[in-house]
Amino acid sequence: MVEKPSFEIPPELRDFAEKNVDLTTAEPHLERLEGEAKTAMLLGTERGLIGIIAVADTLKQEAKEAVAALRNEGIQLILLSGDNRRTAEAIAREVGIDEVIAEVLPADKANVIRDLQAQGKVVAMVGDGVNDAPALATATIGIAIGSGADVAKETGGIILVRDDVREVVTAIRLSRATMRKIKQNLFWAFAYNSVGIPIAAAGLLNPIIAAAAMALSSLSVIINSSLLRRLK
After folding, report:
1. Are 12 and 53 in contact (CB under 8 A)?
2. Residue 7 — very low, low, confident or very high, per pLDDT cuts 50/70/90?
3. CB–CB of 152/128 below 8 Å?
4. What are the residue ranges spanned by the domains of the chain?
5. Residue 16 pLDDT
6. Do residues 220 and 180 lie in contact, with contact meaning Cβ atoms separated by under 8 Å?
7. Are strands 124-127 and 141-145 parallel, antiparallel or unpaired?
8. pLDDT at 220 over 50
9. Which H or E run contains 51?
10. DSSP class of 6
């Protein structure tokens, strides 16, 4: 009788367990490899385990900078991954993300987004793969990496041209600054009209002065909006 492994068998390995392939010898190797943020794949037959292959994506240095910048913006960060939990948690520790939701199927990623939205949260999803498309479509704001899959770029509401996750921070800052400018421009437009229209209706405003005031109003909006160019 094959001894039941002492570790939890992830879904992708259950076929081995169902065929009574002994996985106990793989436990220390899986823990070590997955603790190094690698995805381990077991090779075997019904007669036993043959070997382990581990693959890993190279973590870009700018990822840590992006995470730190997003935290400074007061944004709650969650790593949503289809990888096994140990690998996902190792990656999260390396970049500085506290909350991890791992071993999630592509369709279930969208359900996680819906659950967060049901809690009243505005959810932005950043992804680049085919399996990220459902979540990108469900999120309040879908941000696709420009170098990613075409379906992800078609689904995302924002597409980052450069393959640099720090651009996520720039996109959020630019969006917030744009909303501030819109509100400022509306305020000044209403202020000009609230003062000018009653005076003009009373016949106390020279048409030339009225035209100059309208031109000044439009000019102030243009100048205020152009200040967005200073945002880096």
Report:
1. no
2. very low
3. yes
4. 11-55, 61-170, 173-230
5. 66
6. no
7. parallel
8. yes
9. strand 48-55
10. S
Beta bridge partners of 79: 100
Q: Using CA of residue 218, residue 224, residue 228, residue 230, what is the dihedral sign?
A: positive
Task: Tell me the CATH number for domain 61-170.
Answer: 3.40.50.1000
Query: Which pLDDT belongs to residue 204?
Result: 79
Characterize 9-33 residue by residue with b for buried, 16 or more Cβ atoms within 10 angstroms of its Cβ, and e for exposed.
Answer: ebeebeebeeeebebeebeeebeeb
Tens of pLDDT, residues 82-128? 888 888 888 898 899 989 999 888 889 999 999 999 999 999 999 88
Q: Write down how long the chain is.
A: 232
Long-range contacts of 36-45 (CB under 8 A, 24+ apart): 36/90, 37/87, 37/90, 37/91, 37/94, 38/87, 39/83, 39/84, 39/87, 40/84, 40/87, 42/13, 42/16, 44/16, 45/21
* Residue of higher predicted confidence among 19 and 196: 196
Element (H, E) at 96: none
- Output the average pLDDT for the chain: 82
Q: How far is CA 122 from the centre of its chain?
A: 12
Per-residue tokens: 92: 């999260």
**CA gyration radius for the chain?**
27
Q: Are 113 and 125 in contact (CB under 8 A)?
A: yes
pLDDT higher than threshold 70 for residue 151: yes
179 confidence band (pLDDT: 50, 70, 90): very high
